[in-house]
C-alpha cells in the first residue's frame, strides 16, 4: 500500500511537472510574440524619426536615444518624460502597446535587464500629464547638459565650422 501511494504521488508529481513545462512554453511563446509586436510598433511608429537603431538625427533635433535614455531612466521625472514626450504620448498606440514597446526598447537600448517594467496604468498616468514646454522640461531633467552646450556653440559661431 505504502509503495503504491508513493508511485501515485510520483506520477502526480510528473504530471505536475509536465503541466508546468507546458505553461512555461506557452508563456515564452506569448512573450516572444509581445516582443515582436513591440519591435514592429517601434519600426512603424517611431523609427521614421528615431531610426531603426535609435541613433536619431541630433543635428535635426532628434536625440540619440542610446545616449539620452539611460540618463532619463535614472530619475522619476526622466522616466515619466519618456512617456510624456509627444512622440510617445501623442502616438496612435494604446497605453498597453506603449508599455509593451517601452518594455522591449528600454532593455534593448541600455543592455540592462533590471529596468523596472512600465505598466499600462503607469503609461496612462504619465500620458494624461502633458508637458507645456517639452525642451525646457527635457533640459531641466538632463541637467541642462545637451541643449545649453548647443546654444553656446550656436552663439559662438554663426554656423557649423
Ligand atoms: C516626428 C518625429 C518623431 C516621432 C515619430 C517620434 N519621436 Fe520620439 N522624439 C522626437 C523628438 C524631436 C524628441 C526630442 C524631444 C522633443 O522635442 O520632443 C523625441 C524624444 C523621444 C524620447 C526621449 C529621448 C530624449 O532624449 O528626449 C523618447 C523616449 C521617444 N522620443 C520615444 C518615441 C517613441 C516610443 C516613438 C514612437 C511611438 C517616438 N518617439 C516617435 C521625435 C519623434
Automatic annotation (TrEMBL):
<dbReference type="GO" id="GO:0009055">
    <property type="term" value="F:electron transfer activity"/>
</dbReference>
<dbReference type="InterPro" id="IPR036909">
    <property type="entry name" value="Cyt_c-like_dom_sf"/>
</dbReference>
<keyword id="KW-0732">Signal</keyword>
<feature type="signal peptide">
    <location>
        <begin position="1"/>
        <end position="31"/>
    </location>
</feature>
<protein>
    <submittedName>
        <fullName>Cytochrome c in methylamine utilization cluster</fullName>
    </submittedName>
</protein>
<dbReference type="GO" id="GO:0020037">
    <property type="term" value="F:heme binding"/>
</dbReference>
